[in-house]
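Predict the assembly for these two chains.
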Amino acid sequence: MADYTLAELAAWGERIEELAREEGLNFYPQEFELCNYEDMLCYQAYTGMPSHYPHWSFGKAYEKLKTLYKYNISGLPYEMVINANPCIAYLMKENSLLLQILTMAHVYGHNDFFRNNRLFTAGTRAELTVETFKNHARRVREYAGDPSIGYERVEQLLNAAHALRFQTNRVVGEDRLSYEEYYRRKYRSEQERTPDHPLLEEARAPGDTNGTAGRKRRIPPQPEEDILWFITEYGDLEEWEKDVINIVREETAYFLPQIETKIMNEGWASFWHYLLLCRLDLPEKLRWEFYRYHNQVIRPTPGGLNPYHIGYVIFKYLYEQQGKEKIFEAREVEKDQSFLRRYLNLEICKELELFEYMKKRDEYIVKEIADEEGWKSIRSQLVKTTGLGAIPVIRIVEYRPLDHHLLLEHEYDGRDLEMNYTTETLRYCAELWKGKVTLKTRINKEERIIHCDEKSNLSILL
Amino acid sequence: MAVFRECNSGGKDRSAEDRRRHRQLVEKAIKKNLHEIVAEESIIGQNKDKKIKIPIRGLKEYQFIYGRNHGGVGTGTGKEKRGDIIARDLISHGPGQSGAGTEEGEEIYETEITIEDLINYIFDDLNLPYLERKKLSQAATVVNQKRLGYRTKGIPPRLAKKRSVMEKIKRRQSRRRTDPDFARDERFPFHEEDLRYRFICEEKRHQTNAVVFCIMDTSGSMDHTKKYLARSFYFLLYQYLRLKYTEVEVVFVAHTTTAREVREEEFFHRVESGGTFISSGYRKALEIIEERYNPAVWNIYAFHTSDGDNWSEDNEQALAAAKELCRVCNLFGYGEIDPDDFRITSPISRFFQESPAEKNFAMVRITDKEDLFPAMKKLLTLEERLEE
């Protein structure tokens, strides 16, 4: 501890909490954990969780973070907070008093967001977070320790499951229907439906009923985006394998709201740390430090996008233009894509100095700039690439049980898949599926079919 | 009211196990790309403990990700105009990239390993079982003598006089205690059993004297890639011999139509114009052997790398010189480097092939980095066979 004591920190914390409540933030009970920088790196590597199942990728994440930190390429995060009830945030002991104050105020912003945003309330159960992850860790360790399974098989399975973990159900909080249930409901609704044109229906009726009853039910009935789920249902997996895959799926589901609200979440927290600190009446020395750090947090990344920056600017604009109620409403019902679509306007685009670029051969060329004609295109492009928009949509379109063959299709929107990654991921997919997998995609607008058989042999058909 | 508490990791390093596993996998990846690393690392005569930095590609976590053909949005300065070209590196990521594992591209780590590690990896890769490796490293030994206590039997020159006197005094004392009649001044001569001899142990040590002749064709026809391959080849051989002998000297002989002994830097950086007389290089090596490295004392290894070009009038002489080299060397190798994979066999290699081969002569062909290992293997197996 440098220039402050724990009691001092707690006193500041108390004042911040009071102010936050006054301002109308509605948060879970807050817990701060003081840790040193190595603990911090660890938490960061393990997605902030106090316990997590083991996998080498976390070791890699740790080494990478440490290297970046060592060579001063990136600083440590000031804050690390997890969506849990009580909300847990980590404060790094090495930070100065001001940074701790700033972090605490920022954390209350996140905490409020976790508690109120629709995606979080619908998609996660904050009171179970820590327990769930602990439970996952225990189960994976048990499988790894089981002599009939062993570490390597668990690791291999995790490698494959990690490769597919974002090919998941994109609708947060939606209940999963089994296909039988889907067909049952569909059949029922068809039965109950009162025909719009009774005469026409009658004429077609005999053939139709025969059709629904006799027709083989297509699996999946509609393109399925949750590939891991499908494999656990229709693949040839042992119980423990299904369990491990479900652990990975549950974890993705937990992080999905965070992926979908990165800009809003950080913007919201930055907006509040600024407002709360302004109200804190800091001594002059701390105030200067505060301005300095605040500007560091929300400064634009040249050529890139800083979510803190974008979110902060939009929330500030909304607050100034439409008042407090509006921002509270936005934080509750939006996710990044809808937030940007609804609130990003020409003025904000200009303030953010956004531009849209395209790629021509090796060059990146400015396509649109923030002006009357350009800003809408910028907005669309931004929305398209935000949140889950950054992850390709790849869905199972057909399952052929005869030769245990899975057909995937990439929903092409002009963005090509990275081929090297695609083929390797397809291998993982075939490995999990224990059968043939075919992916249909396009490269440079031309159709490509990539086939991977059960022995992980690849072939690319044009 | 918020709770404040200290982190209670209890001094336990939580990520240790996953880091270990990661490193293990990285190591595995290194072994897999070994030939690449060896070919790209350019140190031949280096200390075993020297650390070299090698770039390794990070273990990738594959996922379906987008490539880079598409556009995006970035924060600018407000001064961009339509049609401006912005540097490729300026744009790194689109938004939402914070989602774990969605970033694309090469992650290159630099790992430091010692040359010894590298050699160990190589030998792991070559599948030399440990015992065999040990045998190899102890194969060449000299006898070094070392005192190791005393024995009752021995040859006169090793008689330990002081020790023998002590033994005699001991015997006299015990005699005096047990025999009351024993007079103090009675003569008490040495007895056979008093005598002690120094025991000399024969200590086995690595044979120290080995010399490697690196002979290379430096005529203009050896271009950059070829030198690169040659260098890697020598690196491997040198490192292998370092395992067998504690001291290995290296002699570099560069030749065109004439040959010169050069230093390592020169050896790899010199480009000369002119024709090629391979025999000149061999003759030079023979000359140096005659002068400085007596074959009775030195283990001589000679390796010649060339692109196979030789002026045809020299072929006969080259063969004769090669045979002579075979006689004085433990092993003589000829490595033909042909990165273009242009010919099936060069005139000179055909010539070598057709001639009756000495049993310690080996010919390898390297067209690519990938060939380095097989070439090494071939030479090593020959070396082992010769030892048996």
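The beta strands of chain A are 30-35, 80-82, 87-92, 354-360, 363-369, 394-400, 405-410, 436-443, 446-452, 458-461. Chain A touches chain B through 101 residues (CB under 8 Å).
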